[in-house]
């Protein structure tokens, strides 16, 4: 096998590499393994997901590079099953943000690295939406939930992510209140099914998928970065890439930002594009 050291290929997961069932198809897994083992392709994923769901989704892929997880807040070393280059939020920033939530009678989820595990802390009653969120993730091997934790703000473990789900206008009010007081990366977005609902993700300054890709590319010494995406939160990393590819099911804004449009996520489009690219070089 000759390792292709010139190009780094990075794909978003949901809506891009994963199919309509939010799983990696057997065809995509086989083709990615062929690309990695036979062509030496440098391939990884960049996602807002945590290793708790990324690892089982990608378990059929013979990955050689770390996964970019939690929106760029850390890398996940596949060989060592461990976090790398985690970017924690300062403790005083965590307190300031938690105070803002509590003034609005809310409490966020605080994701903290505890060795190779992700401890997710929450205090107080949860909404039905939050309860469903926890129930769907409670038995994952790389994640532990600490609910009704009165010390959720001050755990000694480093905080990598502060996350909340609520009405968009409520979360927007918290963002407007807290942003003048802290330095951090904030992503506030509407639910794709109900635009009145929203999701808020807060990470340390300099924590984005785009910057994480740049750091990984520099570490690998590649000459070219190709990024694949479908959603609005992929646009920044697509703009930071040498070449960007939107899947056919992407939002119109994403297609407009991309250099090229390929097939849909339901047709194993990402690995097929990479294979064609490698064969042309």
Summarize it.
The chain is α/β, with parallel strands linked by helices.
CATH superfamily of the largest domain: HAD superfamily/HAD-like
CATH fold naming of the largest domain: Rossmann fold
Q: Roughly how many Å apart are the termini?
A: 16 Å
Number of domains: 2
Oligomer: single chain
- How many helix segments? 10
Shape: globular
The CATH architecture assignment of the largest domain turns out to be 3-Layer(aba) Sandwich
Uncertain stretches of 5 or more adjacent residues = none
Strand order of the largest sheet: 8-7-6-9-11-10
Give a description of the structure:
There is one protein chain. Helix 2 runs parallel beside helix 10. A hairpin with a 4-residue loop joins strand 3 (67-69) and strand 4 (74-77). The protein has a six-stranded mixed beta sheet with strand order 8-7-6-9-11-10. It contains ten helices and 14 strands. It is α/β, with parallel strands linked by helices and 281 residues long. Helices cover 33% and strands 24% of the residues. The two termini are 16 Å apart.
Characteristics of this structure?
281 residues; alpha/beta; Rossmann fold; Hypothetical Protein, Haloacid Dehalogenase-like Hydrolase, Chain: A, domain 2; 2 domains; six-stranded mixed sheet; five-stranded parallel sheet; 24% strand; globular
């Amino acid at each position: 096998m000759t390792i292709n050291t010139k190009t780094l290929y990075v794909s978003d997961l949901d809506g891009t590499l994963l199919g309509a069932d939010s799983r990696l198809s057997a065809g995509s897994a086989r083709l990615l393994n062929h690309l990695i083992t036979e062509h030496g392709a440098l391939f990884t994923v960049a996602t807002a997901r945590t290793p708790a769901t990324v690892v089982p989704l990608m378990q059929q892929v013979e990955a050689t590079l770390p996964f970019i997880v939690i929106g760029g807040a850390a890398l996940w070393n596949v060989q060592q099953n461990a976090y790398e280059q985690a970017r924690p939020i300062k403790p005083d920033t965590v307190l300031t943000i938690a105070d803002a939530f509590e003034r609005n009678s809310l409490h966020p989820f605080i994701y903290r690295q505890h060795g190779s595990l992700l401890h997710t802390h929450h205090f107080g009653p949860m909404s039905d939406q939050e309860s469903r969120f926890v129930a769907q993730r409670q038995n994952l091997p790389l994640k532990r939930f600490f609910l009704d934790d009165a010390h959720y703000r001050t755990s000694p473990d480093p905080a990598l992510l502060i996350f909340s789900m609520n009405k968009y206008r409520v979360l927007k009010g918290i963002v407007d209140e807290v942003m003048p007081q802290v330095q951090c990366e904030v992503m506030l977005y509407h639910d794709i099914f109900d635009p009145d609902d929203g999701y808020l993700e807060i990470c340390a300054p300099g924590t984005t998928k785009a910057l994480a890709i740049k750091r990984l590319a520099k570490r690998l010494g590649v000459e070219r970065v190709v990024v694949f995406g479908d959603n609005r939160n992929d646009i920044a990393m697509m703009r930071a890439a040498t070449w960007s590819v939107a899947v056919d099911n992407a939002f119109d804004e994403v297609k407009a930002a991309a250099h090229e449009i390929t097939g849909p996520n339901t047709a194993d489009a990402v690995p097929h594009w990479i294979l064609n690219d490698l064969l042309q070089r």
